[in-house]
Amino acid sequence: MSGPVLVLNKLLLHQAAKPIIFLICLLPFIRLGYGAFTDGLGANPAEFLIRAAGDWTLRFVCIVLAVTPLRVMTKLSGLARFRRMLGLFAYFYVVFHLLSYSWFDMGFDVADIAKDIAKRPFILVGFAAFVLLTPLAATSFNRAIKAMGAKRWQMLHKLVYVIAGLGLLHFFWMRAGKNNFNEVFVYVAIVAALLGWRVWYFFSKKKKMQSSPVVRPQPSRGSSLRS
Description:
Elements lengths: L2 H10 L4 H21 L7 H30 L8 H23 L4 H10 L1 H18 L3 H7 L1 H8 L1 H18 L5 H30 L16
Helix pairs in contact: 2-3, 2-4, 3-4, 3-9, 3-10, 4-6, 5-6, 6-9, 7-8, 9-10
């Protein structure tokens, strides 16, 4: 491991690293809150809040998916300790997105919200992503891993790939109304690259394991082998 990598790992493992990353992740929410109180969110602040919260949800899902490739490629093992916190921030922003829509668009009318979800496919898909993200957030702590077992926990958290797909579809349908797909293509390219890397890494590891010679233990002198 090279010198710069060791230094960066040391910084990532420092006790102050998590609070700093936490504050950085909270900055978009602080900025949106400040803009709301100072009338700095444009002509339609409600729409701005809803869309910005949705955008940050998708960004955090991409960031979570990027942790493992970055950790492997850069050998920065310290990145792994932030993955769960970043996932919880993805959930925080999707809750903010849902609450903003429920409040500003629907006035917290549960019946109208239910009708709107059933009527509009892009909202149904977004709501499905929120539902799937909820158990991931609820099990993002050590006690849950211990209770579920590592294998089951890992299988559950693979739902993040489905959530990423639903998030992209939600974003695509939302932008289709204005025929504006530039940002959609950017997110699709990012998610495709991150998932593509995982497929490549899985098969390259499998190939490496298959090509590695199997070392059979040799019997020690004086031992007897029975057929």
